[in-house]
Amino acid sequence: MAKTKSVYVCQNCGAESVKWLGRCPSCGEWNTYVEERITKETSSRPGLVNVSRNAIPTPIREIDSDNELRVDTKIGELNRILGGGIVPGSVILLGGEPGIGKSTLALQLALGLKSQKVLYISGEESARQVKLRADRINHDSQDCLILNETLLENILTQTERVCPELVVIDSIQTLYTDTIESSPGSVSQVRETAAALLRYAKTSGTPVILIGHITKDGSIAGPKVLEHIVDVVLQFEGDQNYLYRILRSAKNRFGSTSEIGIFEMQSGGLVEVTNPSEILLSHREEMLSGIAVAATIDGARPFLIETQALVSTAVYGTPQRSTTGFDPRRLNMLLAVLERRAGFRLANKDVFLNIAGGLRVNDPAIDLAIISAILSSTFDVAIAGSTCFAAEVGLSGEIRPVSRLDQRIAEAAKLGMSRAFVSKYNLKKSDVHPKGIEVIPLGRIEELVKALFGRSSGRQQQADS
Ligand code: TYD
Ligand code: MG
Protein backbone atom coordinates (compact mmCIF):
# COMPACT_ATOMS: atom_id res chain seq x y z
CA MET A 1 0.00 0.00 0.00
CA ALA A 2 1.13 3.51 -0.68
CA LYS A 3 1.58 5.82 2.29
CA THR A 4 1.43 9.57 1.78
CA LYS A 5 3.73 11.67 3.84
CA SER A 6 4.16 15.40 3.72
CA VAL A 7 7.41 17.16 4.50
CA TYR A 8 8.75 20.67 4.13
CA VAL A 9 11.90 20.79 2.06
CA CYS A 10 14.36 23.67 1.74
CA GLN A 11 14.57 24.41 -2.00
CA ASN A 12 18.07 25.73 -1.56
CA CYS A 13 19.89 22.96 0.27
CA GLY A 14 17.42 20.09 0.48
CA ALA A 15 17.08 20.02 4.27
CA GLU A 16 13.80 18.52 5.45
CA SER A 17 11.55 19.46 8.32
CA VAL A 18 8.16 18.20 9.53
CA LYS A 19 6.91 21.76 9.95
CA TRP A 20 7.34 24.96 7.97
CA LEU A 21 10.28 27.14 8.91
CA GLY A 22 10.93 30.74 7.94
CA ARG A 23 14.68 30.36 7.92
CA CYS A 24 16.50 27.19 7.02
CA PRO A 25 18.66 26.16 9.99
CA SER A 26 20.95 24.28 7.61
CA CYS A 27 21.84 26.89 4.98
CA GLY A 28 20.47 30.07 6.57
CA GLU A 29 18.28 31.07 3.58
CA TRP A 30 14.88 32.68 4.22
CA ASN A 31 11.54 31.53 2.81
CA THR A 32 12.86 28.46 1.07
CA TYR A 33 10.66 25.81 2.70
CA VAL A 34 8.01 24.32 0.43
CA GLU A 35 5.63 21.53 1.30
CA GLU A 36 6.25 18.38 -0.72
CA ARG A 37 4.13 15.26 -0.62
CA ILE A 38 5.98 12.02 -0.88
CA THR A 39 4.18 8.79 -1.64
CA LYS A 40 6.24 5.97 -0.26
CA GLU A 41 5.86 2.69 -2.09
CA THR A 42 5.97 -0.24 0.23
CA SER A 43 6.94 -2.59 -2.59
CA SER A 44 10.14 -2.04 -4.54
CA ARG A 45 10.29 1.05 -6.77
CA PRO A 46 8.51 0.61 -10.06
CA GLY A 47 10.12 1.02 -13.41
CA LEU A 48 13.63 0.28 -12.29
CA VAL A 49 15.81 -2.37 -13.79
CA ASN A 50 16.48 -4.85 -11.09
CA VAL A 51 19.55 -6.76 -11.99
CA SER A 52 20.74 -8.96 -9.18
CA ARG A 53 24.24 -7.88 -8.45
CA ASN A 54 26.99 -10.01 -7.23
CA ALA A 55 27.62 -8.32 -3.92
CA ILE A 56 30.30 -10.54 -2.49
CA PRO A 57 33.35 -8.81 -1.00
CA THR A 58 36.34 -9.29 -3.33
CA PRO A 59 40.04 -8.80 -2.55
CA ILE A 60 41.28 -5.69 -4.35
CA ARG A 61 44.00 -7.60 -6.24
CA GLU A 62 41.34 -9.74 -7.93
CA ILE A 63 39.45 -6.78 -9.30
CA ASP A 64 40.85 -5.97 -12.71
CA SER A 65 40.87 -2.41 -13.87
CA ASP A 66 42.14 -2.98 -17.42
CA ASN A 67 38.70 -3.32 -18.91
CA GLU A 68 37.87 0.30 -18.09
CA LEU A 69 37.05 1.06 -21.69
CA ARG A 70 36.20 4.67 -22.26
CA VAL A 71 33.82 5.98 -24.86
CA ASP A 72 35.63 8.43 -27.13
CA THR A 73 33.36 11.48 -27.32
CA LYS A 74 34.91 12.68 -30.62
CA ILE A 75 35.26 16.10 -28.96
CA GLY A 76 38.91 16.43 -28.01
CA GLU A 77 38.44 19.07 -25.32
CA LEU A 78 35.69 17.04 -23.67
CA ASN A 79 37.75 13.85 -23.75
CA ARG A 80 40.59 15.66 -22.02
CA ILE A 81 38.41 17.02 -19.23
CA LEU A 82 36.83 13.63 -18.66
CA GLY A 83 40.26 12.03 -18.44
CA GLY A 84 40.15 10.23 -21.79
CA GLY A 85 36.48 9.69 -22.51
CA ILE A 86 33.24 8.62 -20.84
CA VAL A 87 33.52 5.71 -18.40
CA PRO A 88 30.73 3.12 -18.84
CA GLY A 89 28.10 3.33 -16.13
CA SER A 90 29.16 6.80 -15.06
CA VAL A 91 26.78 9.68 -14.45
CA ILE A 92 27.95 13.09 -15.63
CA LEU A 93 26.27 16.27 -14.49
CA LEU A 94 26.64 19.21 -16.88
CA GLY A 95 25.71 22.51 -15.29
CA GLY A 96 25.69 26.07 -16.53
CA GLU A 97 23.68 29.25 -16.95
CA PRO A 98 20.77 29.35 -19.38
CA GLY A 99 21.85 29.91 -22.97
CA ILE A 100 25.47 29.04 -22.34
CA GLY A 101 25.32 26.03 -24.68
CA LYS A 102 24.65 22.96 -22.54
CA SER A 103 22.02 21.55 -24.88
CA THR A 104 24.20 22.35 -27.88
CA LEU A 105 27.21 20.55 -26.41
CA ALA A 106 25.15 17.52 -25.40
CA LEU A 107 23.50 17.31 -28.82
CA GLN A 108 26.82 17.70 -30.59
CA LEU A 109 28.17 14.85 -28.49
CA ALA A 110 25.10 12.72 -29.22
CA LEU A 111 25.32 13.35 -32.97
CA GLY A 112 29.06 12.82 -33.06
CA LEU A 113 28.88 9.27 -31.72
CA LYS A 114 27.85 7.76 -35.00
CA SER A 115 28.59 4.14 -34.30
CA GLN A 116 26.83 4.19 -30.94
CA LYS A 117 23.17 4.24 -30.15
CA VAL A 118 22.44 7.46 -28.26
CA LEU A 119 19.13 8.31 -26.65
CA TYR A 120 18.65 12.06 -26.25
CA ILE A 121 15.77 12.80 -23.90
CA SER A 122 14.56 16.35 -24.17
CA GLY A 123 12.19 17.61 -21.54
CA GLU A 124 12.61 21.24 -22.48
CA GLU A 125 12.33 21.29 -26.24
CA SER A 126 10.08 19.40 -28.61
CA ALA A 127 11.60 16.83 -30.96
CA ARG A 128 11.20 19.31 -33.82
CA GLN A 129 13.11 21.98 -31.96
CA VAL A 130 15.89 19.51 -31.31
CA LYS A 131 15.91 18.66 -35.00
CA LEU A 132 16.17 22.35 -35.91
CA ARG A 133 19.12 22.69 -33.57
CA ALA A 134 20.70 19.58 -35.04
CA ASP A 135 20.37 21.11 -38.50
CA ARG A 136 22.35 24.14 -37.34
CA ILE A 137 25.11 21.87 -36.15
CA ASN A 138 26.66 20.40 -39.21
CA HIS A 139 26.30 16.65 -38.76
CA ASP A 140 25.69 13.48 -40.71
CA SER A 141 24.23 11.31 -37.98
CA GLN A 142 21.03 9.51 -38.90
CA ASP A 143 20.44 7.27 -35.92
CA CYS A 144 20.50 9.43 -32.83
CA LEU A 145 17.22 8.76 -31.02
CA ILE A 146 15.23 11.73 -29.72
CA LEU A 147 12.58 11.30 -27.06
CA ASN A 148 10.37 14.05 -25.76
CA GLU A 149 9.43 12.83 -22.29
CA THR A 150 9.56 14.02 -18.71
CA LEU A 151 8.04 11.13 -16.72
CA LEU A 152 10.85 9.08 -15.25
CA GLU A 153 8.98 5.77 -15.37
CA ASN A 154 8.33 6.17 -19.11
CA ILE A 155 11.96 7.06 -19.71
CA LEU A 156 13.12 3.95 -17.91
CA THR A 157 10.69 1.82 -19.94
CA GLN A 158 12.13 3.28 -23.14
CA THR A 159 15.74 2.79 -22.09
CA GLU A 160 14.92 -0.84 -21.35
CA ARG A 161 13.34 -1.25 -24.76
CA VAL A 162 15.97 0.59 -26.78
CA CYS A 163 19.12 -0.40 -24.82
CA PRO A 164 21.05 2.75 -25.71
CA GLU A 165 24.81 3.07 -25.28
CA LEU A 166 24.56 6.62 -23.97
CA VAL A 167 21.64 8.51 -22.45
CA VAL A 168 21.41 12.31 -22.38
CA ILE A 169 18.82 13.95 -20.13
CA ASP A 170 18.03 17.59 -20.93
CA SER A 171 17.38 18.58 -18.16
CA ILE A 172 17.16 16.88 -14.77
CA GLN A 173 14.95 19.73 -13.48
CA THR A 174 12.18 18.86 -15.95
CA LEU A 175 11.89 15.21 -14.93
CA TYR A 176 9.37 13.95 -12.42
CA THR A 177 8.43 10.65 -10.92
CA ASP A 178 4.94 9.43 -10.06
CA THR A 179 5.97 8.40 -6.59
CA ILE A 180 6.38 12.00 -5.45
CA GLU A 181 3.65 14.59 -5.68
CA SER A 182 5.73 17.75 -5.75
CA SER A 183 6.34 19.64 -8.97
CA PRO A 184 9.23 18.92 -11.37
CA GLY A 185 12.41 20.76 -10.41
CA SER A 186 11.67 20.62 -6.68
CA VAL A 187 14.37 19.23 -4.47
CA SER A 188 12.72 15.88 -3.80
CA GLN A 189 11.89 15.32 -7.48
CA VAL A 190 15.44 16.13 -8.56
CA ARG A 191 16.89 13.91 -5.87
CA GLU A 192 14.63 10.94 -6.62
CA THR A 193 14.88 11.08 -10.40
CA ALA A 194 18.66 11.50 -10.28
CA ALA A 195 18.98 8.59 -7.87
CA ALA A 196 16.84 6.37 -10.14
CA LEU A 197 18.95 7.30 -13.18
CA LEU A 198 22.08 6.62 -11.18
CA ARG A 199 20.79 3.13 -10.34
CA TYR A 200 19.97 2.62 -14.00
CA ALA A 201 23.48 3.69 -15.05
CA LYS A 202 25.22 1.49 -12.50
CA THR A 203 23.14 -1.63 -13.15
CA SER A 204 23.12 -1.39 -16.95
CA GLY A 205 26.58 0.07 -17.43
CA THR A 206 25.17 2.80 -19.67
CA PRO A 207 26.69 6.25 -19.14
CA VAL A 208 24.14 8.98 -18.45
CA ILE A 209 24.66 12.70 -18.99
CA LEU A 210 22.40 14.91 -16.89
CA ILE A 211 22.03 18.55 -17.85
CA GLY A 212 21.37 20.71 -14.79
CA HIS A 213 20.31 24.30 -14.32
CA ILE A 214 22.20 26.52 -11.98
CA THR A 215 20.86 28.97 -9.44
CA LYS A 216 21.55 32.70 -9.24
CA ASP A 217 24.65 32.22 -7.16
CA GLY A 218 26.13 29.77 -9.65
CA SER A 219 25.62 26.45 -7.91
CA ILE A 220 23.72 23.61 -9.52
CA ALA A 221 20.02 23.89 -8.69
CA GLY A 222 18.68 21.16 -6.52
CA PRO A 223 20.14 19.47 -3.53
CA LYS A 224 23.85 19.31 -2.93
CA VAL A 225 23.38 15.55 -2.80
CA LEU A 226 23.05 15.65 -6.58
CA GLU A 227 26.70 16.66 -6.81
CA HIS A 228 27.60 13.96 -4.34
CA ILE A 229 25.93 11.06 -6.11
CA VAL A 230 27.12 11.73 -9.64
CA ASP A 231 30.60 10.69 -10.78
CA VAL A 232 31.55 13.79 -12.71
CA VAL A 233 30.42 17.41 -12.37
CA LEU A 234 31.17 19.64 -15.35
CA GLN A 235 30.54 23.36 -15.24
CA PHE A 236 30.02 25.30 -18.41
CA GLU A 237 31.07 28.92 -17.88
CA GLY A 238 31.61 32.03 -19.89
CA ASP A 239 30.05 35.35 -20.44
CA GLN A 240 27.07 35.39 -22.78
CA ASN A 241 28.43 38.51 -24.40
CA TYR A 242 31.66 36.80 -25.28
CA LEU A 243 31.82 33.88 -27.63
CA TYR A 244 34.15 31.80 -25.51
CA ARG A 245 32.88 29.07 -23.27
CA ILE A 246 34.93 27.27 -20.68
CA LEU A 247 34.18 23.77 -19.55
CA ARG A 248 35.61 22.95 -16.14
CA SER A 249 35.34 19.82 -14.11
CA ALA A 250 34.43 20.48 -10.50
CA LYS A 251 34.54 16.80 -9.62
CA ASN A 252 35.79 13.77 -11.48
CA ARG A 253 36.01 10.29 -10.06
CA PHE A 254 37.94 9.08 -13.12
CA GLY A 255 40.34 11.89 -13.87
CA SER A 256 41.87 15.17 -12.85
CA THR A 257 39.81 18.23 -12.01
CA SER A 258 42.49 20.64 -13.10
CA GLU A 259 41.73 20.46 -16.81
CA ILE A 260 39.70 23.03 -18.69
CA GLY A 261 38.33 22.99 -22.20
CA ILE A 262 37.73 26.10 -24.25
CA PHE A 263 35.02 26.33 -26.89
CA GLU A 264 33.79 29.06 -29.15
CA MET A 265 30.10 29.41 -29.96
CA GLN A 266 29.71 29.83 -33.69
CA SER A 267 26.72 29.79 -35.98
CA GLY A 268 27.24 26.08 -36.52
CA GLY A 269 27.52 25.09 -32.87
CA LEU A 270 30.46 24.86 -30.48
CA VAL A 271 33.96 24.69 -31.93
CA GLU A 272 36.95 23.59 -29.88
CA VAL A 273 39.67 26.13 -29.28
CA THR A 274 42.88 24.19 -29.30
CA ASN A 275 45.23 27.14 -29.08
CA PRO A 276 43.71 29.60 -26.60
CA SER A 277 46.64 32.03 -26.56
CA GLU A 278 46.02 33.08 -30.13
CA ILE A 279 42.51 34.28 -29.43
CA LEU A 280 43.22 35.79 -26.05
CA LEU A 281 45.87 38.18 -27.32
CA SER A 282 44.66 41.11 -29.31
CA HIS A 283 47.63 41.30 -31.74
CA ARG A 284 47.43 45.06 -31.62
CA GLU A 285 49.49 47.20 -33.94
CA GLU A 286 49.77 50.39 -31.91
CA MET A 287 51.23 50.60 -28.45
CA LEU A 288 48.60 51.22 -25.82
CA SER A 289 49.27 51.84 -22.17
CA GLY A 290 47.65 49.75 -19.43
CA ILE A 291 48.03 46.39 -21.15
CA ALA A 292 50.28 43.56 -19.98
CA VAL A 293 50.40 39.93 -21.08
CA ALA A 294 50.46 37.21 -18.43
CA ALA A 295 51.73 33.67 -18.99
CA THR A 296 49.19 31.70 -17.02
CA ILE A 297 48.29 28.06 -16.57
CA ASP A 298 44.80 26.75 -16.14
CA GLY A 299 44.50 23.05 -15.68
CA ALA A 300 47.44 21.48 -17.39
CA ARG A 301 47.65 23.98 -20.18
CA PRO A 302 49.76 27.12 -20.32
CA PHE A 303 48.42 30.06 -22.26
CA LEU A 304 48.95 33.77 -22.61
CA ILE A 305 46.28 36.20 -21.64
CA GLU A 306 45.95 39.96 -21.73
CA THR A 307 45.32 41.96 -18.58
CA GLN A 308 44.13 45.53 -18.95
CA ALA A 309 44.14 48.24 -16.31
CA LEU A 310 42.89 51.78 -16.28
CA VAL A 311 44.00 54.13 -13.51
CA SER A 312 42.35 57.52 -13.37
CA THR A 313 41.79 60.25 -10.82
CA ALA A 314 38.73 59.55 -8.69
CA VAL A 315 35.87 61.94 -9.30
CA TYR A 316 34.02 61.07 -6.11
CA GLY A 317 35.40 60.88 -2.61
CA THR A 318 35.68 57.11 -2.49
CA PRO A 319 37.74 55.76 -5.37
CA GLN A 320 36.25 52.88 -7.33
CA ARG A 321 37.91 49.52 -7.68
CA SER A 322 36.30 47.39 -10.28
CA THR A 323 37.46 44.08 -11.77
CA THR A 324 36.25 41.66 -14.43
CA GLY A 325 37.60 38.13 -14.25
CA PHE A 326 39.83 38.76 -11.24
CA ASP A 327 39.30 38.67 -7.49
CA PRO A 328 38.70 42.28 -6.34
CA ARG A 329 40.23 41.55 -2.93
CA ARG A 330 43.43 40.44 -4.59
CA LEU A 331 43.47 43.68 -6.60
CA ASN A 332 43.16 45.66 -3.37
CA MET A 333 46.03 43.69 -1.92
CA LEU A 334 48.22 44.40 -4.96
CA LEU A 335 47.37 48.10 -4.79
CA ALA A 336 48.28 48.16 -1.10
CA VAL A 337 51.60 46.49 -1.93
CA LEU A 338 52.27 49.10 -4.62
CA GLU A 339 51.50 51.85 -2.14
CA ARG A 340 53.39 50.59 0.88
CA ARG A 341 56.32 48.79 -0.69
CA ALA A 342 56.99 50.86 -3.80
CA GLY A 343 55.57 54.21 -2.76
CA PHE A 344 52.92 54.70 -5.46
CA ARG A 345 49.99 56.75 -4.20
CA LEU A 346 46.92 55.11 -5.66
CA ALA A 347 44.56 55.77 -2.76
CA ASN A 348 42.80 58.61 -4.61
CA LYS A 349 42.66 56.86 -7.96
CA ASP A 350 39.94 54.78 -9.59
CA VAL A 351 41.36 51.45 -10.74
CA PHE A 352 39.61 49.28 -13.30
CA LEU A 353 40.92 45.87 -14.20
CA ASN A 354 39.86 43.56 -16.96
CA ILE A 355 40.95 40.09 -18.04
CA ALA A 356 40.50 39.71 -21.80
CA GLY A 357 38.02 37.31 -23.34
CA GLY A 358 35.66 37.15 -20.36
CA LEU A 359 37.82 34.56 -18.63
CA ARG A 360 38.24 34.18 -14.90
CA VAL A 361 41.78 33.58 -13.76
CA ASN A 362 42.73 32.25 -10.35
CA ASP A 363 46.39 31.61 -11.09
CA PRO A 364 48.54 33.75 -8.73
CA ALA A 365 51.19 34.02 -11.46
CA ILE A 366 49.09 36.71 -13.09
CA ASP A 367 49.98 39.18 -10.26
CA LEU A 368 53.07 40.56 -11.94
CA ALA A 369 51.19 41.27 -15.18
CA ILE A 370 48.46 43.06 -13.26
CA ILE A 371 50.95 45.23 -11.37
CA SER A 372 52.69 46.02 -14.66
CA ALA A 373 49.40 46.93 -16.35
CA ILE A 374 48.50 49.23 -13.45
CA LEU A 375 51.92 50.89 -13.56
CA SER A 376 51.75 51.22 -17.34
CA SER A 377 48.41 52.97 -17.05
CA THR A 378 49.65 55.18 -14.19
CA PHE A 379 52.71 56.32 -16.17
CA ASP A 380 50.80 56.24 -19.47
CA VAL A 381 53.71 54.33 -20.97
CA ALA A 382 52.94 51.29 -23.10
CA ILE A 383 54.58 47.92 -22.53
CA ALA A 384 55.81 46.22 -25.70
CA GLY A 385 53.37 43.60 -26.95
CA SER A 386 56.15 41.03 -27.03
CA THR A 387 56.73 41.21 -23.27
CA CYS A 388 55.08 38.80 -20.88
CA PHE A 389 55.00 38.25 -17.12
CA ALA A 390 54.78 35.21 -14.85
CA ALA A 391 55.24 35.68 -11.11
CA GLU A 392 53.32 36.08 -7.91
CA VAL A 393 53.70 39.25 -5.82
CA GLY A 394 54.01 38.88 -2.05
CA LEU A 395 52.85 41.24 0.68
CA SER A 396 56.31 42.63 1.24
CA GLY A 397 56.73 43.50 -2.44
CA GLU A 398 58.88 40.49 -3.25
CA ILE A 399 58.43 38.75 -6.57
CA ARG A 400 57.72 35.13 -5.84
CA PRO A 401 58.23 31.96 -7.86
CA VAL A 402 55.36 30.17 -9.59
CA SER A 403 54.75 26.58 -10.61
CA ARG A 404 55.80 25.14 -13.99
CA LEU A 405 57.68 28.20 -15.15
CA ASP A 406 59.41 26.38 -18.00
CA GLN A 407 56.05 25.47 -19.55
CA ARG A 408 54.96 29.08 -19.37
CA ILE A 409 58.17 30.30 -20.96
CA ALA A 410 57.95 27.68 -23.67
CA GLU A 411 54.40 28.76 -24.53
CA ALA A 412 55.46 32.42 -24.57
CA ALA A 413 58.38 31.64 -26.88
CA LYS A 414 56.09 29.63 -29.15
CA LEU A 415 53.84 32.65 -29.55
CA GLY A 416 56.67 34.98 -30.45
CA MET A 417 57.26 36.72 -27.12
CA SER A 418 60.74 38.16 -26.83
CA ARG A 419 60.94 39.02 -23.11
CA ALA A 420 59.58 37.26 -20.03
CA PHE A 421 59.75 38.81 -16.56
CA VAL A 422 59.91 36.15 -13.85
CA SER A 423 60.97 35.75 -10.25
CA LYS A 424 64.70 35.32 -9.73
CA TYR A 425 63.92 32.64 -7.13
CA ASN A 426 62.36 30.60 -9.91
CA LEU A 427 65.51 30.20 -11.96
CA LYS A 428 68.21 27.60 -11.58
CA LYS A 429 71.68 27.77 -13.10
CA SER A 430 70.98 24.68 -15.15
CA ASP A 431 67.88 26.16 -16.82
CA VAL A 432 67.94 26.21 -20.59
CA HIS A 433 65.43 28.57 -22.12
CA PRO A 434 64.05 28.39 -25.63
CA LYS A 435 65.82 30.47 -28.27
CA GLY A 436 64.53 33.93 -29.03
CA ILE A 437 63.17 34.73 -25.57
CA GLU A 438 65.05 36.73 -22.98
CA VAL A 439 64.19 35.72 -19.41
CA ILE A 440 64.55 38.61 -16.98
CA PRO A 441 64.79 37.69 -13.28
CA LEU A 442 63.37 40.09 -10.70
CA GLY A 443 63.49 40.11 -6.91
CA ARG A 444 61.36 43.09 -5.90
CA ILE A 445 58.77 45.45 -7.36
CA GLU A 446 61.30 48.31 -7.50
CA GLU A 447 63.36 46.25 -9.92
CA LEU A 448 60.30 45.77 -12.13
CA VAL A 449 59.68 49.53 -12.25
CA LYS A 450 63.31 50.11 -13.19
CA ALA A 451 63.54 47.34 -15.78
CA LEU A 452 60.23 48.12 -17.43
CA PHE A 453 59.95 51.88 -17.34
CA GLY A 454 63.51 52.91 -16.54
CA ARG A 455 62.34 54.79 -13.47
CA SER A 456 63.04 54.55 -9.83
CA SER A 457 60.16 53.64 -7.55
CA GLY A 458 57.40 56.06 -6.62
CA ARG A 459 58.85 56.82 -3.21
CA GLN A 460 62.03 58.34 -4.61
CA GLN A 461 60.08 60.17 -7.29
CA GLN A 462 57.91 61.78 -4.72
CA ALA A 463 61.00 62.70 -2.67
CA ASP A 464 62.62 64.22 -5.77
CA SER A 465 59.70 66.45 -6.62
P1 TYD B 1 21.78 26.24 -25.64
O1 TYD B 1 22.56 25.02 -25.96
O2 TYD B 1 20.32 26.22 -25.95
O3 TYD B 1 21.97 26.67 -24.14
P2 TYD B 1 21.47 25.95 -22.81
O4 TYD B 1 20.99 24.60 -23.16
O5 TYD B 1 22.71 25.95 -21.95
O6 TYD B 1 20.42 26.84 -22.24
O7 TYD B 1 22.52 27.43 -26.38
C1 TYD B 1 21.80 28.43 -26.88
C2 TYD B 1 22.63 29.56 -27.41
O8 TYD B 1 23.61 29.18 -28.32
C3 TYD B 1 21.67 30.46 -28.12
O9 TYD B 1 21.85 31.76 -27.62
C4 TYD B 1 22.03 30.33 -29.56
C5 TYD B 1 23.43 29.87 -29.57
N1 TYD B 1 23.76 28.95 -30.68
C6 TYD B 1 24.67 29.38 -31.60
O10 TYD B 1 25.19 30.48 -31.54
N2 TYD B 1 25.00 28.51 -32.64
C7 TYD B 1 24.43 27.28 -32.75
O11 TYD B 1 24.77 26.52 -33.69
C8 TYD B 1 23.51 26.87 -31.77
C9 TYD B 1 22.87 25.50 -31.84
C10 TYD B 1 23.19 27.73 -30.75
MG1 MG C 1 19.00 23.86 -23.02
Characteristic key phrases:
465 residues, alpha/beta, Rossmann fold, Ribosomal Protein S5, domain 2, 7-stranded mixed β-sheet, 21 strands, binds thymidine-5'-diphosphate
Describe this structure in words.
With 465 residues, the chain is of the alpha/beta class. It has three domains: 2-41; 70-274, P-loop containing nucleotide triphosphate hydrolases (Rossmann fold, 3-Layer(aba) Sandwich); 279-464, Ribosomal Protein S5, domain 2. It has twelve helices and 21 strands. A hairpin with a 5-residue loop joins strand 18 (392-393) and strand 19. The chain is globular, with a radius of gyration of 27 Å. It starts with a strand and ends with a helix. Residues 46-51 have low confidence and may be disordered.
Secondary structure: elements and pairs:
Elements (H helix, E strand, L loop, with lengths): L2 E8 L5 E2 L15 E8 L35 H7 L8 E6 L5 H11 L5 E5 L4 H10 L8 E3 L4 H11 L3 E5 L16 H18 L3 E6 L10 H6 L2 E6 L6 E9 L7 E7 L2 E4 L3 H5 L10 E8 L2 E13 L7 E4 L3 H15 L6 E7 L11 H13 L7 E4 L1 E2 L5 E2 L4 H10 L4 E5 L14 E5 L2 H9 L4 H7 L1
Bound molecules: thymidine-5'-diphosphate and magnesium ion.
Compact overview of the structure:
With 465 residues, the protein is of the alpha/beta class.
Give the full name of the CATH homologous superfamily of the largest domain.
Answer: P-loop containing nucleotide triphosphate hydrolases
The unreliable regions are 46-51
Q: What is the helical fraction, as a range of percent?
A: 25-40%
How many independent structural domains?
3
What is bound: which ligands? Answer: thymidine-5'-diphosphate, magnesium ion
| Beta-strand fraction estimate | 25-35%
Report, as a whole number of angstroms, the end-to-end distance. 90 Å
CATH fold-level assignment of the largest domain: Rossmann fold
- Helices, by number, come to 12
